[in-house]
Specification:
heterotrimer, A alpha+beta (237), B mainly alpha (124), C mainly alpha (128), A: Ubiquitin-like (UB roll), Fumarate Reductase Iron-sulfur Protein, Chain B, domain 2, 2 domains, five-stranded mixed beta sheet, B: 124 residues, mainly alpha, 3 helical TM bundles of succinate and fumarate reductases, 74% helix, 0% strand, binds protoporphyrin IX containing FE, binds iron/sulfur cluster, binds FE2/S2 (inorganic) cluster
Chain lengths: 237, 124, 128
């Protein structure tokens, strides 16, 4: 049985240098639809000037991250039911800690560059180390890496909030996952704006839609960096 | 910052300072708990009087512990303060001033505290 | 190109716990108690200077702080010390890769210890 809910979308709007405001749209929705579906209908039937990004619609491309009622969500897999009630409000804002291009769309260029430069692997072997321990696999099956580069973790991080120079959870997690701590990567992660900047708020792990557990990876990266320094100190290669 | 990569070498957060912060934290909690117990639970009336403090310092272990505590806690507190200040992203110039300021404050308070402890020991 | 949104004015946002999870509460508490203890430490050192001025000066001061208002203040300092210190243990060990996946349970456990210690101190201080 499909249900119908009346909800109000409050959408953050910003164009160029104009001041920001919220537009309200009264919508009839099925609570089992996703937040993104409503936004698309607003664009299709109410306001063609609304800018937002998405692509795959199934949590693979990482383009549709937004702040929904104050919490970072991958909007294409976030059911309306989980964020509001019948007659309720859905306030949609662009991700925090990124420059806003227009409305709900943010500029993630710097983030993608950083991911690349720490050697984040988009494809990893099936047997892979995660916070639940190490799975070892004999064969060399490959799968997509967990991190879909959605940027939600950076939006949620209180330290990313204070400075754009902080590499951010996904990037540090990417370095940990790639396992290749060459001098270039080390210069980035073993530094003021790398792994030592984190203050353990664990928000990244909380919002990550993809079981990357970035906070655990940052801690693991620290352990690896300290071990490396100790080895270097005693001259072990 | 160029292209999102800020690698200008400066003494921001780093492995060494961070490790020191954790280490001093662990040392502080041990002595601090002793400190709180001595000052609140053991004494009659809840607080040490002048005579109590002087008597307390007669055991030679106590002033040593107290000086160590002073050093750890001041170091830890000022490094913590520095982390908070770093989150306001100071420019290199301001950071340098902060560094000088904190070192002066730290050395000053440790010197003053040690002097005070030695004065009280001398009154015994 | 659009500007990065970070500004020093974000200072207050550190302390905004709305829509945040447990880890942020820990971060906020750690920051507030850390700054509070730092302030106390320096006040403490200044006031201990009374010791150098002899028994009358110091004991006069002690008589003043036995006042219930000061006792409450002292209890706050003790509470901050336990909360910050025990939370510091969580940060320390998780940062070495220990119990990283269990940080919430660890936080709740350590804060339970902190609450017990604070209550114990409160009872002892106010029943004298
Ligand atoms: C009781 C034992 C203590 C332990 C185990 C401890 C541990 C820690 C740790 C691990 C941090 C790092 C937090 C982070 O960077 O994420 C920290 C931060 C800090 N600590 Fe302590 N600490 C203790 C006592 C104190 C005391 C007595 C003071 C003040 C006199 C103090 C002041 C600070 C400050 C100002 C910070 C910075 C807060 C921040 O970065 O948000 N700490 N402490
Ligand atoms: C509210 C509870 C507290 C009371 C009643 C108290 C009382 C005292 C007293 C009476 C002394 C002098 C002799 C002694 O060691 O007993 C002292 C010294 C000291 N306290 Fe506390 N204290 C308290 C909390 C703290 C805290 C939370 C810190 C850390 C931030 C601290 C740091 C110190 C230091 C570093 C010294 C040595 C100072 C020196 O150089 O002479 N105290 N305290
Ligand atoms: S770590 Fe998680 S939240 Fe962060 S970018 Fe990757 S998938 Fe998104
Ligand atoms: S649209 Fe691709 S992840 Fe949501």
């Amino acid at each position: 049985m499909t249900q119908t809910w009346h909800v109000t979308y409050e959408i953050f709007r910003k164009k160029g240098d104009q001041s920001t405001h919220y537009d309200r749209f009264e919508m009839k929705v099925d609570p089992d639809e996703y937040v993104l579906d409503g936004i698309e209908r607003i664009w299709a039937f109410h306001d063609r000037s609304l800018v937002f990004s998405h692509a795959c619609h199934h949590s693979t491309c990482g383009a549709c991250g937004m702040v929904v009622n104050g919490v970072e969500k991958l909007t294409c897999i976030t059911p309306i039911r989980s964020v509001t009630k019948d007659g309720g409000v859905i306030r949609v804002q662009p991700m925090r800690n990124f420059p806003v291009i227009s409305d709900l769309s943010v500029d993630m260029t710097v983030f993608y560059q950083r991911m690349e430069s720490v050697g984040h692997q988009p494809v990893v072997s099936v047997g892979f180390e995660d916070s639940k321990g190490k799975l070892d696999s004999e064969d060399d099956l490959l799968r997509l890496s967990d991190c879909i580069e959605c940027g939600l973790c950076i939006s949620a991080c209180p330290i990313a909030l204070t400075t754009p120079a902080y590499l951010g959870p996904a990037v540090l997690a990417g370095a940990q996952q790639s396992g290749d701590l060459n001098p270039c990567v080390l210069e980035l992660v073993d530094s003021e704006n790398g792994a030592w900047r984190c203050h353990s708020a664990y928000e990244c792990t909380e919002v990550c839609p993809s079981h990357v557990d970035p906070a655990w990876r940052i801690m693991d990266l620290r352990k690896k960096l300290v071990a490396r320094r100790i080895k270097k100190f005693f001259g072990v290669k | 910052m160029r292209d999102g990569f800020d690698v200008t070498p400066r003494s921001g957060e780093g492995a060494g300072l961070w490790f020191l912060k954790i280490l001093t934290g662990f040392l502080v909690i041990i002595v601090l708990i002793i400190h709180l117990i001595v000052n609140h639970l053991i004494v009659e009336g809840g607080l040490l009087t002048y005579a109590d403090v002087v008597r307390y310092y007669q055991n030679p272990i106590i002033p040593i512990m107290e000086i160590a505590f002073l050093i750890f806690v001041v170091t830890h507190a000022l490094m913590g303060l520095r982390s908070v200040l770093l989150d306001l992203h100071p420019s290199n110039k301001v950071l340098k001033l902060i560094n000088y300021g904190l070192v002066v404050l730290g050395v000053g308070s440790i010197a003053y505290g040690t002097w005070l402890i030695l004065v009280i020991v001398g009154r015994g | 190109m659009a500007e990065h949104p970070q500004k020093p004015a974000n200072l207050i946002k550190w302390f905004d716990p709305r829509n945040k999870s447990l880890g942020s509460w820990a971060f906020i508490l750690n920051r507030i108690t850390g700054l509070g203890l730092t302030l106390y430490l320096f006040l403490h050192l200044i006031m201990l200077g009374q010791l150098a001025r002899g028994p009358e000066a110091y004991d006069g001061f002690i008589a003043l702080v036995k006042n219930p208002i000061f006792l409450v203040g002292e209890l706050l300092v003790i509470a901050a010390a336990f909360i910050h210190g025990l939370n510091g243990i969580r940060i320390g060990i998780t940062s070495f890769g220990i119990a990283g996946g269990k940080q919430k349970q660890l936080f709740i456990g350590l804060m339970t210890v902190a609450v017990i210690a604070i209550v114990y101190f409160a009872i002892r201080m106010f029943t004298h």
